[in-house]
What we know:
Layout: E1 6-7, E2 16-17, H1 24-27, H2 57-76, H3 78-83, H4 91-103, H5 105-110, H6 112-115, H7 121-128, H8 131-136, H9 142-146, H10 148-154, H11 157-177, H12 179-192, H13 198-201, H14 210-220, H15 226-242, H16 247-252, H17 260-269, H18 273-277, H19 281-295, H20 308-319, H21 324-341, H22 347-359, H23 368-372, H24 375-378, H25 389-392, E3 397-403, H26 408-423, E4 427-431, E5 434-438, E6 446-452, H27 457-471, E7 477-480, H28 487-491, E8 500-503, H29 512-518, E9 523-527, H30 533-550, H31 555-565, E10 574-575, H32 581-594
Parallel strand pairs: 3-6, 3-7, 7-8, 8-9
Antiparallel strand pairs: 1-2, 4-5, 5-6, 9-10
Helix pairs in contact: 2-4, 4-7, 11-12, 12-14, 14-15, 14-17, 17-20, 19-21, 20-22, 20-32, 21-22, 22-32, 30-31
Amino acid sequence: MCAAAxxxxxxxxxxxxxxxxxxxxxxxxxxxPKPQAPDVRPVEIPSTCADHEPxxxxxxxxxxGGEEAFAELARRTPAEAFRCSSLFPGxxxxxxxxxxxxxxxxxxxxAADQLTTRPGGxxxxxxxxxxxxxxxxxxxxxxxxxxxxxxxKRLPKPDLRVLEIQASKTLAASLARNxxxxxVKIGALLDDMVDDPLTDRFRITTALSSxxxxxxxxxxxxxxxxxxxxGLVDILRIQLKQERRGFxxxxxxxxxxxxxADFFVATVGGGRAASLFGTNPATARDLxxxxxxxxxxxxxPKAPGIDSAVVIGALADAMDLDNRPVRAALEDELAAxxxxxxxxxxxxxxxxxxxxxAMRLSGRAATPAFDAEQxxxxxxxxxxxxxxxxxxxxNGVNVQRMTFYDDPDGRASFRGFLKQHRAQGWALHSxxxxxxxxxxxxxxxxxxxxxxxxxxxxxxxxxxxxWMAREGLTPSIVIHRGHxxxxxxxxxxxxxxxxxxxxxxxxxHTRLRATLERAxxxxxxxxxxxxxxxxxxALLGIIEERLLADGTIDWDAVWKExxxxxxxxxxxxxxxxxQDSANLAFRAWRDLAAH
Length: 595
């Protein structure tokens, strides 16, 4: 039996004991053992539908109510009736399903796999696949796209093409009537199709004009997964070419100009400034002129929906381009707008954007017109917190909290985490629901990482925090390892004293404001576009090396080493905390508002 490990404790305090080490067989198993669920009394009625998902409350109530209750369920909630039809045998239920298929054929098609497991279900699916019935039930057009996989498998190709053409027209008309509501539905569908081939995923956009595509991005861009935003921007560029138009036409268009500020923030904030401004300096300058007019109206403080800190960060990111002539055109236009602004309230926003850009030039030359405005002197940026050894270490121990989630990405990332740290000589320990990795001692310093075990859920998370409380450990670093839709769960891990937060998810920079509200003095390392596990592992490994070697984090050293070691082009979307425009903008605007 292995001896328990202890980590640094203060004099007179009880030694801090780690769980028993993991054995090699456990380390390379597909997953660490999940905590055993407590015994529960078996349910006496069937409660799982044919898709192996639990029945909802409406279905459970119908099970107790008999034939009439199921008939009412089929009329009121046909999708649930079809999905769970295997729980309702008998001719009366079959008759109710036939009737429901005539009214809600797409619901029947969407549950075809489940429906065909019951006697008579195949006949109902065939009835629902009637082209005329489907056409009349298109609604706002979304039902076609929500059931596209089943339709593609079961509908003849000529019928499928006819139905898709009608669905695209219906969708476009629905979007024109109610753009705000439909944009949310389309965005949710695109995000839900994240694992689909791109041609299938973005088929829903084929009938949309450039104005409609811009409206989608403007209304839902910041809430979209990065891959969804990237796809929409790419499709918009293709559509503009087909229409023989450019972004400048949309910035000046009567229908699209009111949405341009939101579109600009979503597109540039999503890391697509180069796609927006292109390679023609003259066009880029005109586009910057229109964007400044939209982003910085004279009544900025009173303009609804305008977030000044977000605008500062977006303008700074717009100028942070590799194309020197285009960057120069944007710098000159910002400087010219700033000179003309006089005493406009928006002048401070433009000035801080210029200041953030100036401090990030890192040896690159700005234009003389830009330099002449002395942005750094007139609008000094906020002083960033320093990651001192006192903030990061306590009694020689740096404690990190790392979150993993129970999906394929989370399980694979967790296995990579274990393998990487085992190979580097770290001690790995396991308890029910969480794991602990302890680095070798270096210069009297050690790192302790308390990580979730995918599948342990809230119980495992609670167990990890209970253990840290007993051992007197407080994480100074919080690390998110998972998709963006898990970010809310990680956000609860951040405390006011947290010194560094690492968002390794796609588009993690959108969480900067919420992060700083929870931890005002934290530095934030986040992705502006795509986050990827291999880059996360490499970058976190370099940070761990610097912590052990230096007792702090020198971002110049980290980034220099990362640029030499990480060959993945997606590393470019990771923003170092001391140069992240959104991070700098939030702090600068907060300091300005406080004075």
